[in-house]
Design a protein that fits this description.
Blueprint: H1 7-18, E1 28-29, E2 36-39, E3 42-45, E4 47-48, E5 59-62, H2 69-78, E6 82-85, H3 104-111, E7 116-118, H4 122-136, E8 145-152, H5 167-170, E9 175-176, H6 185-196, E10 201-208, E11 215-222, H7 232-237, E12 244-246, E13 262-268, E14 276-283, H8 287-301
Helix pairs in contact: 1-8, 4-6
Bound molecules: NADP nicotinamide-adenine-dinucleotide phosphate.
C-alpha cells in the first residue's frame, strides 16, 4: 500500500486488514514515515516509499497524490505487481488513455482480471452513477446542460495540513470552490460521459461541507420527454448491484457513511416548461469514493468475490 498514511490510505489499510483474502504487505508514508498507527485494531508502521518491497505484493494500491503516483505505478508494474491507482494520474481525460476505469457498475468486464486499474475520483463516482442510466438510454435533451452541485466532507481534501481546512475555517460554514466549471475532476467526468454517448454539457460545482466524510450530489437534468416512473432507469440499470441502493426519498449522508454504498433517488421537477429531473446521489467519499471501490476493483482483478471484505 503506497500512501497509506493519507485519509484514503488509512481507510484502505483498515479494509485490507479485515479482508478475508488480502494481507497488508507494506504501508508507505512520506512525512509520516516511521510512525505506527492502528488500522482495524492492528498496528501498521509506515515505511518510506523508496523502501517499499514492491515485488513482495501481488497487488499494490497507490494512494499517492496525483502527479506523484504515476512513477510508482510504473515501478510496481515493473516489479510484477498488479496496481489499483487511487490518484487521478491514469483516469480517463488525464493523458494516459487505455487504462481500465474502475467504476465496476459501468466497466466491470474491463476491470475483471486487469493488471492496472484507475480508481475513480470521489465526485465522479457520485455524479457518473447518477447520470449513466439516463445517458445510456438517450433520455437527456439534446443541447441541454446537466447541472451537478456536490457537497463533500473535509476528508476529501486529504490530511496534509492546509490553513483553509483548519477547524476554525470550516466549522459552521458552507462554501463553493472550484467554481466556473474548473474542478480537476471534470476531465474524468466528461471523458466518461462522452464514452457513454453523452452530448450534453456538464456543469459541476463542488462545495465544502463541515462534516468529516460523505458526498451528496444534487443533479438537474432536462429530459427529451417526461418519464412515467422517475426512478425506473436506475432500478432497471442497477438491479442486482450489491453496492447500489435506489431509495424512496432523497438520501442522507448518514445512510452511506462508512459503507461501500451509493444511494440514488430521482424525482420530476414541477413548474418547469420542459421536463426535468432532480437526481440525488450519496456516497462516503473515503469508501465508495476511494478505498472501498479500490477493494471492489482489486477483488475483480484477482478474480475474488467482488463483495469480499466489503459487506
Ligand atoms: N480523500 C478522498 O476522499 C479521496 C477520494 C478519492 C481519491 N482520492 C485520491 O487518493 C489519493 C490520496 O488522497 P488522500 O486524500 O488520502 O491524500 P492525503 O491524505 O494527502 O495522503 C497522501 C498520501 O501520499 C503520501 N505522499 C504525499 N506526497 C508524497 C510524495 N511526494 N511521495 C511519496 N508519498 C507522498 C502522504 O504521506 P505523508 O502524509 O506521510 O506525507 C500520504 O500517505 C489522491 O490521489 C486523491 O486524489 C482521495
Amino acid at each position: 500500500m503506497l500512501g497509506a498514511s493519507g485519509y484514503a490510505g488509512r481507510e484502505l489499510c483498515a479494509l485490507i486488514q479485515r479482508h478475508p483474502a488480502l494481507q497488508l504487505s507494506f504501508a508507505t508514508a512520506n512525512e509520516q514515515r516511521g510512525q505506527t498507527v492502528h488500522a482495524a485494531g492492528r498496528p501498521v508502521t509506515f515505511v518510506a516509499t523508496e523502501d517499499a518491497p514492491l515485488g513482495d505484493a501481488e497487488l499494490v494500491f497507490s494512494s499517492l497524490p496525483h502527479g506523484a503516483s504515476r512513477e510508482w505505478v510504473d515501478a510496481a508494474r515493473a516489479a510484477g505487481a498488479r496496481v489499483v491507482d487511487l490518484s487521478a494520474d491514469l483516469r480517463p481525460g488525464n493523458g494516459r488513455e487505455g487504462v481500465p476505469y474502475g467504476l465496476p457498475e459501468l466497466t466491470r468486464s474491463e476491470v475483471r482480471g486487469a493488471a492496472v486499474v484507475a480508481n475513480p475520483g470521489c465526485y465522479p463516482t457520485s455524479v457518473l452513477l447518477a447520470l449513466a442510466p439516463l445517458i445510456e438510454r438517450d433520455l437527456v435533451a439534446e443541447g441541454s446542460a446537466m447541472i451537478a452541485n456536490s457537497a463533500s466532507g473535509v476528508t476529501g481534501a486529504g490530511n496534509t495540513p492546509k490553513r483553509e481546512y483548519l477547524f476554525g475555517e470550516v466549522a459552521e460554514d458552507y462554501r463553493a470552490y472550484g467554481v466556473g466549471n474548473t474542478h480537476r475532476h471534470l476531465k474524468e467526468m466528461r471523458a466518461t460521459l462522452e464514452r457513454l454517448g453523452s452530448t450534453a454539457d456538464l456543469v459541476f460545482t463542488p462545495h465544502l461541507l463541515p462534516v468529516t466524510r460523505g458526498i451528496l450530489s444534487s443533479i438537474t437534468v432536462e429530459l427529451k420527454a417526461p418519464l412515467g416512473d422517475a426512478m425506473e432507469p436506475w432500478r432497471q440499470r442497477f438491479a442486482g448491484e450489491p453496492f447500489i441502493e435506489v431509495v424512496g426519498a432523497p438520501p442522507r449522508l448518514r445512510d452511506v457513511a462508512y459503507r461501500n454504498a451509493v444511494q440514488l433517488h430521482a424525482l420530476p421537477l414541477t413548474g418547469t416548461a420542459r421536463p426535468m429531473l432532480l437526481v440525488f446521489s450519496a456516497i462516503d467519499n473515503l469508501v465508495k469514493g476511494a478505498a472501498g471501490q479500490a477493494i471492489q476493483n482489486a477483488n475483480l482483478m484477482l478474480e475474488l468475490d467482488e463483495t469480499a471484505g466489503l459487506l
